[in-house]
Amino acid sequence: MTLQANRVPGWFDNNGPESDIITSTRIRLARNLAHRRFPYHASLAERKQAYKEITGVLNHEARFRSFEVLNFANLSKLEQQFFLEERVVSPDILGIDGERGVAFDRSRRINIMINEEDHIRMQCLDSGFRPAELWSVLSMIDDVLGQKMNFAFDNRRGFLTCCPTNSGTGLRVSFLMHLPGLVLTKTIDSVLQGASQMGISTRGFFGEHSEVVGNFFQLSNQATMGAHENDFLEGTQKIICEVIYHEREARKRILQDAQLEITDKIFRAYGILLHARTLSIKECLNLTSALRLGVITGLFDLITMEELNRITLLAMPAHLQIYRGSTMDETAMGVARADLVRELLTKRKRRKNSSRSEGESLRS
Q1: In 3-state terms, what secondary structure has residue 289?
Q2: Is 134 helix (H, G, I), strand (E, B) or coil?
Q3: What's the pTM value of the predicted model, to 2 decimals?
Q4: Helices (DSSP H) in 97-149: which residue ranges?
Q5: Rg for the chain (alpha carbons), in Å?
Q6: What is the DSSP letter of 179?
Q7: Which residue, 274, 333, 344, 352, shows the most beta carbons closer than 10 Å to its own?
Q8: Closest-CA residue to 290 (of 132, 274, 277, 206)
């Protein structure tokens, strides 16, 4: 297994619909094997048996033969953290003992976690606003696996899961959203409170138990029981569209009423990133959030969104250490992160100045 730290995953390429606000869409289903205890209540031997059963199906089913299957019991902490940063797995799987892991396709668009909170957490993840498209893919995968394994199901309660809030359909529809407009206009709390009243929960960049940084918010449906999957999809989409509307209006207001102030904020962020000698991951994400807003609104053109996404990903702790080829403590990572960001921004600046000079020479 070769970890490619400088490869930007598909969910982070900003090529999807509404990607100026919605970084990615994720559809996830939770399932458990009917004849086995849930992972949190199972012994190590029982988890091993469940892992063997699930990976056996994946390895022999034609639909999954091209998938790579990784047993996290055989990976280092750094390698595990790498896959968390790629959003292939959840934070919870890092703290579990025994046989557990993930299977994913070459694009890492489809990921199947094994022995996390539930025996199976299958998800489909891609750039932009794509709930219907991803649900179509994941529903098919659920059907294939459901034909090969006996899932825990109750006629009244639906699919049974470790956490009761996931029971029923087991469906989570999540959107990673960049909402700097709402934050800067101080309307984020009222918008999220309204979304919460309509059944939407808010989490950080890496989902449950993670912090909100860089103005990235993950919004998901709260209810999973009492309706059909399509009802949850449609209801969640409608609320997310409302949030998109409010973010666009907030950005318009900023450009109309405070363009000088926001432009100054963007270029100050650029200056810090270009000259800082140490950067925490939190500070880096907050500063690059300002550049992201600048690129989207046309106020800043010294970097492309593709380059900005690459910087954001490489600044993550595991990606940074793997890219540099050495393990580091927090202090060393802060220095290495600042060096890396400065190097990438400086290269971009030189290329842009070179292109400008060539253009001027041609005109003269």
Answers
A1: helix
A2: helix
A3: 0.92
A4: 131-148
A5: 22
A6: -
A7: 333
A8: 274
